[in-house]
Amino acid sequence: MGIAASELILNDDGSVYHLNLLPGDVANTIITVGDQERVGEVSKYFDRVELKKSKREFTCHTGWIGSKRISVISTGIGTDNIDIVFNEIDALFNVNLETREVREKKAVLDFIRLGTSGSLSNEVALGSVVVSEVAVGIDHMNYFYRVPVQLVDTEFEDSLRIVLGGDFNLYSVKADVDLASRFLSSDGYVLGKTLTSIGFYGPQGRSIRNELLKPDFIDQIARAGVTNLEMETSGIYLLAGCLGHRAISINAILANRRTGDFAKEPAKVVDDMIKGALEVVL
């Protein structure tokens, strides 16, 4: 029997439920961004855009740079949205949506996240672009999916457990080695270890009016070797690894959480990251 209608929900036109995309709409190379508006900031560098679709917070542009077909899709913020995007994109390639049966021959996709992040190290300056070699998540995605053992970075995970104690359910996932090496062989990239949190304020050590239960959280994770802090990478690495795809997370550093500084030209930092990443992808 095929996958039940309640498990893989399709729209009336046969598109996947949340993304409103059909098989063929998405290229095998997929850039993910959080912000819908950043989709156009990427696709403006395409030679030709063949498709634009939006539903909810998910906007997808597919086009060409020379002979390379590329898609860029917004995920929104957080690993809950990553769960939707990665599962539905995988279904477009690896499930026959008419019969609801998993295809015998699986497509392997390349996911490149282009995000923004805060640095926890004075050695990672504002305006730097970090390639995440590993991400540790405190977002609880590992309660629901088994992380392939070959992707786990036990050493980094254990270093965080030591400083954070037993309060957090941690899991670690490595980047795809080939994709990471492609970026790191180009100038302007810094290798980093990323922590993926479940929120932007308290869960990242920020307080506007609420009192923090862990006011020393930033100092603790910095001592454990965390380079930068954001909200998507661990989910991207986990789901890509589970589904047999390749993923890399690239983050423009707009803030230094230890000094309290913020980039003076954040839009330029992000634009430079986009142009540099497209050069690597091509």
Query: SS-based structural class?
Result: alpha/beta
What order do the strands of the largest sheet run in, or round the barrel if closed? 7-11-10-8-12
Model regions low in confidence, pLDDT < 50 over at least 5 residues = none
**SS field, number of helical segments:** 7
Overall 3D form: globular
Q: Into which percent range does the helicity of residues fall? A: 25-40%
Q: What summary fits the major beta sheet? A: 5 strands, mixed, barrel
The topology string of helices and strands comes to EHEEEHEEEEHEHEHEHEEH
Domains (count): 2
CATH homologous superfamily title of the largest domain: Nucleoside phosphorylase domain
Write down the CATH class of the largest domain.
Answer: Alpha Beta
* CATH fold label of the largest domain: Rossmann fold
Number of strands: 13
| Chain-averaged pLDDT | 94
Q: Write the CATH architecture name of the largest domain.
A: 3-Layer(aba) Sandwich
The value of Rg in angstroms is 19 Å
How widely separated are the two ends? 40 Å
SS strand fraction: 25-35%
